[in-house]
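User: Fold this; C-alpha coordinates only.

Assistant: Input:
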Amino acid sequence: MVKIGSIIYSTNKHESDIPQIETGDVLVSFLRKRQQSLIVPEVIDQPIDNTPVDDPKAVISKLLLIERSLNSGNIDDLNLDYLFKLEKKFVLYGVIHTHYSEQMKPISDINNLPDIYCKLALLLLKLSNLNNDLNALNSAIRLVDKCCELIKQGHNMLNRSDLAICLEMEHVILMRLVSNG
Protein backbone atom coordinates (compact mmCIF):
# COMPACT_ATOMS: atom_id res chain seq x y z
CA MET A 1 0.00 0.00 0.00
CA VAL A 2 1.14 3.49 -0.86
CA LYS A 3 -0.29 6.54 0.92
CA ILE A 4 -0.40 9.82 -0.96
CA GLY A 5 -2.08 12.52 1.10
CA SER A 6 -5.19 10.91 2.59
CA ILE A 7 -5.67 8.45 -0.28
CA ILE A 8 -4.32 4.93 0.06
CA TYR A 9 -3.43 3.24 -3.21
CA SER A 10 -2.96 -0.49 -3.50
CA THR A 11 0.06 -1.50 -5.51
CA ASN A 12 -0.55 -5.24 -5.29
CA LYS A 13 -4.03 -5.62 -6.77
CA HIS A 14 -4.57 -7.92 -9.68
CA GLU A 15 -7.24 -7.22 -12.30
CA SER A 16 -9.34 -10.08 -10.97
CA ASP A 17 -9.44 -8.37 -7.54
CA ILE A 18 -11.18 -5.31 -8.98
CA PRO A 19 -14.97 -5.66 -8.94
CA GLN A 20 -16.69 -5.85 -12.31
CA ILE A 21 -19.90 -3.96 -12.96
CA GLU A 22 -22.55 -5.23 -15.34
CA THR A 23 -23.50 -2.19 -17.42
CA GLY A 24 -26.83 -3.75 -18.36
CA ASP A 25 -27.97 -3.85 -14.75
CA VAL A 26 -26.81 -0.29 -14.16
CA LEU A 27 -28.62 1.06 -17.23
CA VAL A 28 -31.85 -0.80 -16.45
CA SER A 29 -31.73 0.53 -12.90
CA PHE A 30 -30.97 4.03 -14.20
CA LEU A 31 -33.94 3.91 -16.59
CA ARG A 32 -36.30 2.71 -13.85
CA LYS A 33 -35.20 5.46 -11.44
CA ARG A 34 -35.24 8.05 -14.21
CA GLN A 35 -38.79 7.21 -15.19
CA GLN A 36 -39.90 7.72 -11.60
CA SER A 37 -37.98 10.96 -11.07
CA LEU A 38 -39.02 12.64 -14.30
CA ILE A 39 -42.74 12.66 -13.62
CA VAL A 40 -43.55 16.24 -14.42
CA PRO A 41 -46.49 18.05 -12.81
CA GLU A 42 -48.87 20.17 -14.84
CA VAL A 43 -47.98 23.82 -14.53
CA ILE A 44 -50.07 26.93 -14.49
CA ASP A 45 -49.66 29.24 -17.42
CA GLN A 46 -47.28 32.06 -16.81
CA PRO A 47 -45.60 34.59 -19.05
CA ILE A 48 -43.08 33.15 -21.47
CA ASP A 49 -40.60 34.64 -23.89
CA ASN A 50 -42.64 36.02 -26.81
CA THR A 51 -39.81 35.86 -29.34
CA PRO A 52 -41.06 35.65 -32.90
CA VAL A 53 -40.12 32.24 -34.30
CA ASP A 54 -38.41 33.87 -37.28
CA ASP A 55 -36.05 36.01 -35.15
CA PRO A 56 -32.58 35.11 -36.53
CA LYS A 57 -30.85 35.56 -33.17
CA ALA A 58 -33.38 33.41 -31.30
CA VAL A 59 -32.02 30.01 -30.34
CA ILE A 60 -35.39 28.31 -30.80
CA SER A 61 -35.58 29.63 -34.39
CA LYS A 62 -32.18 28.19 -35.22
CA LEU A 63 -33.00 24.88 -33.54
CA LEU A 64 -36.24 24.55 -35.53
CA LEU A 65 -34.33 25.27 -38.73
CA ILE A 66 -31.65 22.72 -37.82
CA GLU A 67 -34.35 20.16 -36.99
CA ARG A 68 -35.92 20.60 -40.44
CA SER A 69 -32.57 20.14 -42.18
CA LEU A 70 -31.66 17.15 -39.99
CA ASN A 71 -35.03 15.50 -40.68
CA SER A 72 -34.57 16.01 -44.43
CA GLY A 73 -31.10 14.47 -44.20
CA ASN A 74 -29.08 17.44 -45.39
CA ILE A 75 -27.72 19.25 -42.35
CA ASP A 76 -24.78 21.48 -43.24
CA ASP A 77 -21.58 22.04 -41.30
CA LEU A 78 -22.63 25.56 -40.26
CA ASN A 79 -25.77 24.25 -38.52
CA LEU A 80 -23.88 21.35 -36.95
CA ASP A 81 -21.30 23.81 -35.68
CA TYR A 82 -24.05 25.96 -34.10
CA LEU A 83 -25.59 22.88 -32.50
CA PHE A 84 -22.30 21.78 -30.98
CA LYS A 85 -21.52 25.32 -29.78
CA LEU A 86 -24.86 25.38 -27.95
CA GLU A 87 -24.12 21.96 -26.48
CA LYS A 88 -20.75 23.23 -25.27
CA LYS A 89 -22.38 26.34 -23.73
CA PHE A 90 -24.69 24.07 -21.78
CA VAL A 91 -21.95 21.67 -20.71
CA LEU A 92 -19.73 24.52 -19.50
CA TYR A 93 -22.31 26.88 -17.97
CA GLY A 94 -25.41 24.74 -17.34
CA VAL A 95 -27.73 27.20 -19.08
CA ILE A 96 -28.78 28.20 -22.58
CA HIS A 97 -29.99 31.73 -23.18
CA THR A 98 -32.82 32.55 -25.61
CA HIS A 99 -30.64 34.75 -27.83
CA TYR A 100 -26.97 34.75 -28.85
CA SER A 101 -24.91 37.07 -31.01
CA GLU A 102 -23.04 35.71 -34.02
CA GLN A 103 -20.03 35.35 -31.70
CA MET A 104 -22.17 33.14 -29.41
CA LYS A 105 -22.29 35.72 -26.64
CA PRO A 106 -25.63 35.77 -24.77
CA ILE A 107 -27.67 38.86 -25.65
CA SER A 108 -30.60 37.95 -23.41
CA ASP A 109 -30.84 37.28 -19.70
CA ILE A 110 -33.60 34.71 -20.16
CA ASN A 111 -32.29 31.16 -19.73
CA ASN A 112 -35.22 29.26 -18.26
CA LEU A 113 -37.28 28.12 -21.26
CA PRO A 114 -37.76 24.34 -21.14
CA ASP A 115 -38.54 24.21 -24.89
CA ILE A 116 -35.00 25.26 -25.80
CA TYR A 117 -33.35 22.61 -23.61
CA CYS A 118 -35.74 19.97 -24.88
CA LYS A 119 -35.32 20.84 -28.58
CA LEU A 120 -31.52 20.78 -28.24
CA ALA A 121 -31.76 17.43 -26.41
CA LEU A 122 -33.96 16.05 -29.19
CA LEU A 123 -31.48 17.08 -31.88
CA LEU A 124 -28.54 15.65 -29.95
CA LEU A 125 -30.44 12.39 -29.44
CA LYS A 126 -31.04 12.18 -33.19
CA LEU A 127 -27.33 12.75 -33.83
CA SER A 128 -26.41 10.23 -31.15
CA ASN A 129 -28.70 7.70 -32.77
CA LEU A 130 -27.23 8.32 -36.23
CA ASN A 131 -23.56 8.39 -35.23
CA ASN A 132 -23.48 6.34 -32.00
CA ASP A 133 -22.19 9.50 -30.33
CA LEU A 134 -22.10 8.89 -26.57
CA ASN A 135 -21.09 12.49 -25.84
CA ALA A 136 -24.23 13.76 -27.57
CA LEU A 137 -26.26 11.18 -25.62
CA ASN A 138 -24.74 12.32 -22.32
CA SER A 139 -25.47 15.98 -23.07
CA ALA A 140 -29.03 15.12 -24.18
CA ILE A 141 -29.71 13.28 -20.91
CA ARG A 142 -28.48 16.29 -18.95
CA LEU A 143 -30.58 18.65 -21.10
CA VAL A 144 -33.71 16.57 -20.47
CA ASP A 145 -32.96 16.73 -16.74
CA LYS A 146 -32.63 20.53 -16.95
CA CYS A 147 -35.88 20.78 -18.92
CA CYS A 148 -37.78 18.73 -16.32
CA GLU A 149 -36.19 20.72 -13.49
CA LEU A 150 -37.42 23.97 -15.06
CA ILE A 151 -40.94 22.57 -15.51
CA LYS A 152 -41.02 21.43 -11.88
CA GLN A 153 -39.99 24.97 -10.88
CA GLY A 154 -43.11 26.24 -12.66
CA HIS A 155 -41.75 27.35 -16.03
CA ASN A 156 -44.19 26.69 -18.84
CA MET A 157 -43.37 24.41 -21.76
CA LEU A 158 -45.21 24.93 -25.02
CA ASN A 159 -44.35 21.68 -26.77
CA ARG A 160 -44.56 18.78 -24.33
CA SER A 161 -44.64 16.24 -27.16
CA ASP A 162 -40.92 16.95 -27.72
CA LEU A 163 -40.24 15.90 -24.13
CA ALA A 164 -42.12 12.63 -24.63
CA ILE A 165 -40.14 11.99 -27.84
CA CYS A 166 -36.86 12.74 -26.03
CA LEU A 167 -37.63 10.31 -23.22
CA GLU A 168 -38.62 7.60 -25.69
CA MET A 169 -35.51 8.10 -27.85
CA GLU A 170 -33.30 8.16 -24.77
CA HIS A 171 -34.85 4.88 -23.60
CA VAL A 172 -34.40 3.21 -27.02
CA ILE A 173 -30.75 4.30 -27.31
CA LEU A 174 -29.90 3.19 -23.78
CA MET A 175 -31.60 -0.18 -24.24
CA ARG A 176 -29.63 -0.67 -27.47
CA LEU A 177 -26.46 0.02 -25.47
CA VAL A 178 -27.53 -2.58 -22.92
CA SER A 179 -28.19 -5.20 -25.58
CA ASN A 180 -24.89 -4.48 -27.38
CA GLY A 181 -23.28 -4.90 -24.01
